[in-house]
Design a protein that fits this description.
The complex is a heterodimer of chains A (90) and B (416). Chain A has one domain (2-89): Folate-binding superfamily (Folate-binding fold, 2-Layer Sandwich), CATH 3.30.2270.10. Helix content of chain A is 19%, strand content 37%. Chain A is built from 2 helices and 6 strands; from the N terminus they run E-E-E-H-E-E-E-H. A 4-stranded antiparallel β-sheet of chain A has the order 3-4-5-6. Chain A has a two-stranded antiparallel sheet with strand order 1-2. By secondary structure, chain B is an alpha/beta fold. Chain B is globular, with a radius of gyration of 22 Å. Chain B starts with a helix and ends in a 16-residue tail after the last helix. Chain A binds chain B through residues 1, 13-14, 18, 20-21, 34, 38-39, 41-48, 51, 53, 71-74, and chain B through 238, 240-241, 244, 249-254, 298-303, 307, 309, 342, 398-399, 411-414.
Chain lengths: 90, 416
Amino acid sequence: MRLTCPLCGERDRREFYYKGDAIALNRPAPDAGTDAWDDYLYLRDNPAGVTKDLWQHELGCSAWIVVERNTVTHEVLSTALASDVKKATK
Amino acid sequence: MRYSGLRVIKEALTGHKGWKPHWRDPEPKKHYDIVIIGGGGHGLATAYYLAKKYGEKNIAVIEKGWIGGGNVGRNTTIIRSNYLLEGNGPFYELSLKLWEGLEQDFNYNAMVSQRGILNLVHSDAQRDAARRRGNAMILNGSDAELLDQDGVRALYPFLNFDNQRFPIKGGLLHRRGGTVRHDAVAWGYARGADSRGVDIIQNCEVTGFKIEDGKCLGIETSRGFIGATKVGCAVAGSSGRLMAKANMRLPIESHVLQAFVSEGLKPVMPGVITYGAGHFYCSQSDKGGLVFGGDLDGYNSYAQRGSLPVVEDVIESGISLIPALGRVRMLRGWGGVMDMSMDGSPFIDKTHIEGLYFNGGWCYGGFKATPASGLCFAHLLSTDTPHEVAKAYRLDRFMSGHMIDEKGQGAQPNLH
């Protein structure tokens, strides 16, 4: 699998560190309650199909990247800087 | 038909004409008391103990493909009871005890071989951790023995003892651990369940649940609706996919784990060894192939195949531990989908939907748990109360703060 870093271009998967589901970008407010925090920390959609996860270009520019990817075919659909994704959802 | 040595001789003299299929191929009935989704090791074991131990009569196992085609047929066949934490220790000890009597119990040759598991240590800190784990194991009724370097050398003289960075200083030996013929486990449980009246329905995919007023009334399948008073799900790597049909989100991610087999060799590896400096473990099958594996591929995946960086990583670890491996040809590798839970420990619990029960989150340790998982899930399904040794495997343990995190990695499934 190869991932396209928005800053560095297409690179080998080994340059990237995998964090997990991109749910990490939607941290609830500190007082959102235990259900919201349980959801955020522990529960996952875990789809067999298109998913979004967070990768860091660890051996490159260190940017955090949101990767849209298919978990069945390993096809990479799109990549974007996590900071841009976060701004767009605000 | 009971299998025995006498039977083998009789069949050999009469042209092997008396062997019958191990199980029937029945049409699904309209309604069952208990339906198990998933004809893998855990599902079949559950059905077996439901019929045998709990006296349940009207049971079906529903399988999307063919039985034993998932992770019970795609693992490295290791059994062990070397857990540290209270929630896990007694459960896996029960499982190992069941393995020890399994072949007599279900009258099937599963080739249970208690050849010992050795976890190597490479530093003082690792030796301390091994001693602590060994003491926890002994307290839970299991066995453990701390070996020094000479002890390890006597068992495995060919290891790389004098590696400059990771010299082998000793190991924790668990003599009752070992390996089992994995496919035979599925077949033995299937045959045992079938002979007690359990309907094993293959090529029948579950497409949805019928849930009304918070109660599960049955399942929709590719072969029509099947009514059920209780539905138990035991589908391992497909847990997320299946439970989404009941609108449930789980504390589980699906990841791919690879394993590899070398060409057949003469006996070299008497037991199972695990490397303490990299993630690598190895045993030798009765056919002679070295069976080995390492880390998860590391990112969520439902593809039953692995990626090359992990192959490289596993082989590197292997050769640094056993330099002689460099001369061995790798025959094949495969990937299985693991239901990695958020704390690395499994679930055997009711769901918030009445009549719907869940068994999953086995991470990459499901095979060794097969007998106890089946027994405890059967206990839950039949009596509606958790089995004594599986009380900790609750679905709400993250909410209540009762995680069972053997490795202390936190909610990061790809690190467990």
